[in-house]
Amino acid sequence: MEKIKVLIADDHAIVREGFKLLLDSDSEIEVVGEAEDGKVAIKQVKELNPDIVIMDVSMPILNGIETTRQIKKEFPKIKIIILSMYSDEEYIRSAIEVGANGYVLKKSASKEIFTAIHEINMGRAYFSSIVSQSVLDGYRKLAESLGKKKGERKQVLTTREREVLQLVAEGHSTPEISKLLSIDKRTVANHRQHIMNKLDIHDVAGLTRYAMNSGIINDY
Predict the structure, then answer these.
(1) What is the DSSP annotation of 42-107?
(2) Closest C-alpha among 92, 87, 89 to residue 102
(3) pLDDT of residue 48
(4) Given CA atoms 159, 164, 167, 169 in this order, what sign does their dihedral have?
(5) Adjacent-strand bridge partners of 79
(6) Which strands form 79-84's sheet, in the order they lie side by side?
(7) How would residue 91 be classed by pLDDT, with cut points 50, 70 and 90?
(8) For the chain, which domains are there?
(9) In the predicted model, is pLDDT for residue 152 greater than 60?
(10) How many helices (H) and strands (E) does the chain have?
């Protein structure tokens, strides 16, 4: 039987190593790659074509929610399990909105990750037991009714602008952002100005608050 190909995306090497050791104990699962941030995860997805990505919600450069959104847009058949320490409604709803197939809490991941992988591989969704089915249904209905309005605010920014905003909020300078995104400094400056104009926010502190409130960055 063909093995389930899994990619692990987490910015902590020890977490990736731990998951790899754990998953290697299942003869039906093969860990095909690891990624330390969202940009690398997208690159690995293109190169390795995994069946499932285990995606940490809090990563630098490109967080798990935004990475999931981009992967699902380009590779809708690839299934993604969000791995998070947060059980807050906002995080769960954000994961659902971008198309995540599962949401597993880190504190219960060692017990639930195998079930999550096999369930999702069979075409079903899987959310940690703390998120009951009735609550999940409520989130889905809420996402459908409010998601458009919320999504319009998020979609004001282009994909590149969201990437620049995350890096600005993480404290990176224009030269650093230029290097990380492989674009010139003038382009970075233009993106920053467009972001400020679109959001009507004209200082880094305000941009950082917006990024945190909208889930673009998290408290690592």
Answers:
(1) HHHHHHH--SEEEEES--SSS-HHHHHHHHHHH-TTSEEEEEES---HHHHHHHHHTT-SEEEEGG
(2) 92
(3) 97
(4) negative
(5) 52
(6) 29-35, 4-9, 52-56, 79-84, 102-105, 126-127
(7) confident
(8) 4-147 (3.40.50.2300), 156-213 (1.10.10.10)
(9) no
(10) 10, 6
Average pLDDT over residues 33-43: 96
Q: Strand 102-105 to strand 126-127: parallel, antiparallel, or no bridges (unpaired)?
A: parallel
Q: How many residues does the chain have?
A: 220
Tokens found for residue 96: 């659902």
Structure token pair of residue 18: 């731990």
Judge whether 174 and 185 are in contact, CB under 8 Å: yes
- CA–CA separation, 21 vs 118, rounded Å? 17
pLDDT at 135: 56
User: What's at 73, amino acid-wise?
Assistant: K
Count the helix, strand and coil residues of the chain and give each as a percent rounded to the nearest 5.
55, 15, 30
Residue in this structure with the two tokens 């809490």, named with its chain if needed = 105
Q: Which tokens belong to 24?
A: 């290697």
Cα–Cα separations (whole angstroms), residue 24 to 50, 85, 88, 90, 211? 15, 23, 31, 32, 36
Report the pLDDT value the prediction gives residue 85, as an integer from 0 to 100. 86
Digit-coded pLDDT (tens) for 61-89: 899 999 999 999 999 999 999 998 887 77
C-alpha 95/C-alpha 56 separation (Å) is: 11
Residue 2 DSSP one-character state: P
